[in-house]
Amino acid sequence: MYMFKQQFESYWTQFSSHLEIDHSSELLHLLIHAYSEPQRHYHTVQHIVECLALFHQIKDQLEDPVAVELAIWFHDVIYDPQAMDNEEKSAELMKQQCLQRFENAKIHKIYDWIIATKKHLPATNQDLNYLLDIDLAILGSSQQRFAEYEQQIQQEYAWVEVTQYQFKRTEVLKYFLDMKPLYQTEYFRNLLEDNAKLNLANSLNKFSHI
């Protein structure tokens, strides 16, 4: 995790220095503290670093790359696996921290985008589709990373009774498997769609044999 923290800090330095963000170190401390909380196993600095790595692959295709990147930084800043309003609270914290640093229209747009990561519905705004695809990119990762991801999610829901967890997790995996397409942008469909469907099918198969 130390390696991911270093990358996290490096990405933030690149982002904040380019925009000359006031009190950048205070925001960095807030973000690192949030993404290092003990209840997190997947929604950590690793997830943000993986999202940012993909963002930098496609940022030239975005209309508002600053908004997409800021949404990535804050979209899981509040995370309680037993709560139902993490996205709303994350959006609120982003607004509190960034309203004096960016124009109102951009903040309100990012606010809505963070809440959109709750349901991952196809959007008319292509920048938002890129954001949603980046957030779901883990589903199309390597077999090894996907297995690690599944373990991390299970650790975050260790408080749920095993049979109930398996039932709920099967519902989630099947929801994503049935999405046609899973990824809304051509770039991520070409890059990840086939592998994601394979990962999801294999995981569902394992649950059916438990």
From TrEMBL:
Domain of life of the source: Bacteria
InterPro entries given in the database record: HD_phosphohydro (IPR009218)
SUPFAM superfamilies in alphabetical order: HD-domain/PDEase-like (SSF109604)
Protein name as catalogued: HD domain-containing protein
Species this chain originates from: Acinetobacter rongchengensis
